[in-house]
Amino acid sequence: MAGRLSRTLGVLALAVVGTTAAQAQMLGPGWYFELAVGKASFRDVTTTDLDGVARDVFDSFELPVQTLSSTLSDTDRSYALTSGYRISPYLSFEASFFRLGAFQYGASGTVSDAGAILPASFRFTYRAKGVLLGAAATLPLGNYLDLRGRAGITNSETRVRIAATVDGQTVNDQFSESSQDFFYGVGVGIKVLEYYRLGVDWMRHDSFGKAGGNGSTDIDNVLMSFSYEY
Questions:
Q1: Does 2.40.160.20 match the CATH number of domain 2-16+28-229?
Q2: For residue 184, what are the β-bridge partners?
Q3: How would DSSP label each residue in 89-132?
Q4: Domain-by-domain residue ranges, the chain?
Q5: In the chain, which residue ranges form alpha helices assigned H by DSSP?
Q6: Model pTM above 0.70
Q7: Spans of the chain below 70 pLDDT
Q8: For residues 93 and 103, what is the distance between their CA atoms, to the nearest angstrom?
Q9: How many Cβ atoms are within 10 Å of 123's Cβ, its own excluded?
């Protein structure tokens, strides 16, 4: 995805530079609003760890796992809605609502019930979202391009859903919890006309969630953004 976004920005940059419009001016203090969509990757999630979770769940019902085959999807769509206030052309403060999607684990196999071998399956979904508060530092590169760095804290929410099925009978449960986490990122943008910006950002959510609760993981988020600045 990052490669396609970079090529899109390259085409837009050539189009902007080739216009005969007057040079863009750096904006002073003011508000901006941004919509971003992209893809989130849950970095340190493994099938081995989640196989252990599946075994532990079945063991809690005294149904030891006999065979197990599993799959893991560790990327999902993401989006963010951001509002910020620019106190100078170089520094802004912003707040954002974001969703990072979910990673999903599925397993099937057999368990032993007092010696009888029964078919079983297990699903585990970990969903991440939250609200962030942070600062953005912008470095203009000429009249149209800029580099942007971001950092701050998030009020994060994780929700875990599990479903364990044995011989056609299913038990479901879910757990939600909040945490305060750190994020940072970098990006590049192109000014379009005077008040609009197209950008690509990479953001890292560091140790998202609670290690002693639903679990924590590093999450990388690559986003394409569209901003209105005034």
A1: yes
A2: 151, 204
A3: SSEEEEEEEEEEEEEEEEEEEEEEETTEEEEEEEEEEEEEEEEE
A4: 2-16+28-229
A5: 2-17, 47-60
A6: yes
A7: 1-26
A8: 30
A9: 17
Distance (Å, whole) CA 204 – CA 151: 9
CB-facing half-sphere around the CA of 43: CA atoms within 13 A: 13
Asked if 137 contacts 185 with a C-beta cutoff of 8 angstroms, the reply is no
Closest to 188 in 3D by CA, of 200, 179, 203, 180: 200
φ and ψ at residue 43, rounded to 5 degrees: -75, -45
In angstroms, rounded to a whole number, what is the distance separating the alpha carbons of residues 65 and 109? 8
**pLDDT of the residue at 194:** 84
Q: Which amino acid is at 229?
A: E
Q: Give me the phi and psi of 78, to 5 degrees please.
A: -135, 160
Is residue 86 within 8 Å of 29, Cβ to Cβ? yes
Q: Check residue 125 and give its pLDDT.
A: 98
